[in-house]
Design a protein that fits this description.
The protein is mostly beta strands. Helix content is 2%, strand content 52%. It has two domains: 106 residues, Dextranase, N-terminal (Dex49a from penicillium minioluteum complex, domain 1); 347 residues, 3 Solenoid (Pectate Lyase C-like), CATH 2.160.20.10.
Length: 471
């Protein structure tokens, strides 16, 4: 589809599978049909100096666009070629005649392999690793061009590092409740490490379970069977830097979920997920009871094919989410909700406070594709974008929903509560500042205060002069 050179040197362009339409459903044991997907492309390169990229398409095209739109690209078109200058590390996307078969480009600062210590080293080429279980003090290094089929898991470990420019590809594996018999090897391997069945349910590309002092830098995660990167059960001091999450097309394929952990930084990352991009998630998974505290998401580029781009999520276990900041992020594509604060199922004590969204830029679209959700027991249907011209996604949603008893882990099925007097859901000190781009018609939905749901100190600041609204 593309031929790319950097200062005259040809680069390797990789293919991947992505979602083609925002059609979702409750998972009922069978994975998403491939007819709802398409091929897309990506490449990565390291540089410490400005370079000239020449991108040549295999076929003619009428128009093209580069995203994030706020980047000031210096480019020119020469027939099927687009020539542009890149002066700094960045992530961006090229689309021809819309966004189909897009090319995702990741320009990084130079990296070097780790020297000495306990290193698991994967060189360029294909590797069928299966479960990669990391112990304290270990480094996992993926050389550029390494494609490692498997998934990474660490539990009760500290001082671990994952780095390089290679790919963890989990495409051979299925989620825990997929009814097909093959592809469940990872769950069996985790059981050999003493994990109970419930702890293996949310296995994706990478899972950190009660780990400390973790660094993840530069690598790519592709085609997770569920959530891609999960930080859960009381992790502390985690840095996720310049990570690329790509090729996520399966049901519930979130990007990064930070669950009941503290002192976590997610920066300079690219996330293209089918479901939610980045989530601060309160206690929900088995064994979780700690708060989410001190999460910073900064300078990330996000593409959400169905769900929510930047989300704060509370569940049915009494919990707190405190001090979460989303800053300087670009939302290049979205379908349903840009920024969301939600509690589902509810509990007798849910606290969400000190949440800020600042300097969030949303790329404009001629029209947005409306998300479609297929109910339980209903057959899939062909996706139709006929209503797209009248649809706009939500800019902000703040609410509580599906209040009642959750019926099972991994499903959004619930039993609605007849009496809400036992719930206590409180949001406090929520700020949105300098939210730009998108389109003027993107709605904001804020739930009204009730006896069981209250918001205090909600602030919308429209620009740097302090103009805005509050309640």
């Amino acid at each position: 589809m593309y031929r790319v050179t950097a200062n005259g040197k040809e680069l390797e362009v990789h293919g991947m599978r992505v979602s083609a339409c925002p059609l979702n459903r409750l998972f009922e044991g069978e994975q998403r049909d491939l007819r709802y997907t398409e091929r897309a492309y990506w490449l990565t390169l390291d540089t410490d100096r400005p370079l000239e990229l020449t991108i040549e398409a295999e076929k003619d095209f009428s128009s093209y666009e580069l995203r994030p739109q706020k980047r000031n690209f210096c480019e020119k078109r020469e027939g099927r070629k687009i020539v542009l200058t890149v002066c700094a590390p960045m992530q961006f996307v090229l689309g021809l005649d819309g966004v189909r078969e897009a090319l995702h480009i990741f320009v990084n600062r130079p990296s070097r392999p780790p020297r000495g210590g306990n290193v698991l080293y994967f060189a360029k080429g294909e590797h069928h690793a299966g479960l990669i279980w990391l112990e304290s003090g270990q480094t996992l290094y993926l050389e550029e061009g390494a494609r490692v089929y498997g998934a990474v898991y660490a539990k009760d470990a500290e001082n671990i590092r994952i780095c390089g420019r290679g790919v963890i590809d989990s495409s051979p594996y299925r989620r825990y409740n997929d009814l097909l018999p093959d592809g469940h090897e990872l769950q069996k391997q985790l059981a050999e490490h003493g994990l109970c069945e419930a702890d293996t349910h949310y296995l994706g590309n990478l899972t950190l379970y009660h780990c400390r002092d973790v660094s993840i830098e530069g690598v790519a995660f592709e085609d997770a069977p569920l959530w891609s990167v999960t930080v859960r059960n009381g992790c502390e001091n985690v840095v996720i830097d310049n990570v690329k999450i790509i090729g996520q097309w399966r049901y519930n394929a979130d990007g990064i979920d930070i669950c009941t952990s503290e002192n976590v930084t997610v920066r300079n990352c690219f996330v293209r997920s089918f479901d939610d991009c980045i989530v601060a998630r309160a206690a929900y998974l088995p064994g979780e009871n700690a708060p989410v505290r001190n999460l910073l998401v900064q300078n990330c580029v996000l593409w959400c094919d169905w769900g929510k781009c930047l989300e704060v999520w509370g569940g049915n276990i009494p919990a707190a989410i405190i001090n979460v900041a989303f800053e300087d992020c670009c939302l290049v594509r979205l379908s349903w909700i840009a920024m969301s604060i939600t509690t589902m199922y509810g509990s007798e004590d849910m606290r969400i406070e000190n949440i800020s969204y600042k300097n969030i830029f949303i790329d404009e679209d001629k029209y947005f594709l409306p998300p479609v959700f297929v109910g339980a027991g209903c057959p899939d249907s062909e996706y139709s974008a006929s209503a797209a011209r009248g649809f706009s996604p939500f800019l902000v949603c703040i609410r509580a929903e599906k209040l009642g008893r959750r019926l099972e882990l991994g499903s959004q099925l619930y039993e609605e509560a007849d009496d809400l007097s036992g719930f206590s859901i409180r949001y406090r000190n929520i700020a949105f500042e300098n939210i730009a781009g998108g389109c003027g018609s993107m709605p904001v939905s804020v739930m009204e205060n009730t006896d069981y749901f209250k918001i205090e100190n909600l602030l919308f600041v429209q620009d740097g002069n302090g103009r805005g609204t509050s309640r």
